[in-house]
Design brief:
alpha/beta; 7-stranded parallel beta sheet
Length: 375
């Protein structure tokens, strides 16, 4: 087969989990499949974004920018189908919610979640309406839909009203560059981000549903009982005001924010913590859980969305809407070294359920089934 991979949505360093998904899936496909040809359609922002250096992978840079969303949608609907025909694509897979509604070949679309419905209050109305229209139409017109968790499959069945036989769940894998030997560069990372041990770690992220404000409020309730700092990796959501007037000087002095962190620094920052906390109110998959388990850190995790499905027995769960419950769970983990050791062990066992090779094999099976059905 000649398989087209539509990455026109991808803005490196901005789109978050869907970039990790694309990188991991392409890596997995290159590992398991040297027979089929893969043509990767990217935008101008992704002209140098790394794709596998394999002879059966090639890149087509399209003359459109994803940052101008309206033009990208227009290109995807009007010009991408012509490119698919030009390059004789047998099956096209659109990895980021939206694909061409009129394709010259069988098409697969990945709908990771229904955030534009569930989290509609966090998204500008115009963007939400356009994304909802194109995503729902792409899902209904596609030959098959891939999603990333059983939780998301239920959401899609209910929200888009698709036949469950048209949806395949393909779980993601942990970080593909997962080197768990942290000692070599820790001194540099420690200086760069001014990390003070011991610490609890979490991801910030720009989205409001990451629930960072409640995490900080919960940390404030336990800070006097333990010597730990709270390290927030990445951006801080717009609803969090990290000022002494807002959260108090004593709390502010114990919170460390890193700003942007390159991929190679994430596992060390996770691995040197005593506890990783994921307080999200909604997750279609929850890849940070696997990253923390890969880094060998105990995980305390929200019960929201797909997180229990992904974290398995390798996490201690809490109600993300309750500051008291978050604080109680953090307190329990920090006070009990043996509990943390058990969670780390269970987390390592849980990782065996996930890999990018497995994700690639399951995805390739979807391509093959769609291709056979249409030929």
């Amino acid at each position: 087969m000649r398989i087209g991979l539509n990455l026109l949505y991808l803005i490196p360093g901005i789109v978050g989990g869907t970039e990790t998904y694309a990188a991991g899936l392409l890596y997995g496909l290159a590992q398991i499949d040297q027979r089929d040809e893969f043509v990767v359609f990217v935008n101008r922002e992704s002209a140098t974004w790394p794709i596998p250096e394999a002879p059966n992978f090639s890149r087509v840079v399209c003359p459109v920018r994803a940052t101008i969303r309206s033009r990208r949608y227009l290109f995807e609907q009007l010009r991408l189908p012509r490119l698919l025909a030009k390059y004789k694509i047998d099956v096209v897979h659109s990895l980021g919610y939206v694909g061409s509604l009129h394709s010259p070949c069988p098409c697969v679309v990945t709908i990771p979640d229904l955030n534009y419905i569930t989290l509609k209050h966090t998204m500008p109305a115009k963007r939400r309406i356009i994304l909802k229209f194109f995503s729902m139409q792409a899902a209904r017109r596609a030959d098959h839909v891939i999603t990333i968790s059983n939780f998301s499959k239920k959401e899609i069945r209910r929200g888009i009203q698709l036949n469950p036989g048209k949806i395949t769940v393909v779980h993601l894998g942990p970080m593909r560059n997962g080197n768990t030997n942290f000692s070599g560069n820790w001194e540099y990372i420690n200086r760069r981000y001014d990390i003070q041990k011991p610490y609890v770690v979490a991801f910030g992220g720009g989205a409001l549903h990451k629930n960072i404000l409640r995490l900080i409020q919960a940390f404030a309730l336990v800070k006097d009982e333990f010597p730990h700092f709270l390290v927030l990796i990445g951006r801080i959501p717009s609803d969090v005001n990290l000022s002494a007037e807002s959260i108090g000087r004593e709390v502010l002095d114990r919170v460390i924010t890193t700003g942007y962190v390159p991929e190679g620094h994430i596992l060390p920052l996770l691995g040197h913590a005593d506890l990783f906390v994921l307080p999200s109110l909604y997750e279609g998959f929850g890849l940070p859980v696997l990253e923390a388990q890969q880094a060998g850190v105990a995980v305390a995790c929200s019960t929201a969305g797909s997180l229990p499905e992904v974290g398995g027995d390798g996490a201690l769960y809490f109600d993300p809407t309750s500051v008291e419950n978050i604080a109680q769970t953090i307190r329990h983990c920090l006070a009990d070294v043996e509990l943390r050791s058990r969670l780390i062990l269970k987390g390592q066992e849980n990782l065996n359920r996930f890999s990018w090779d497995k994700a690639a094999r399951e995805t390739l099976s979807v391509y093959q089934n769609v291709f056979r059905t249409k030929t």
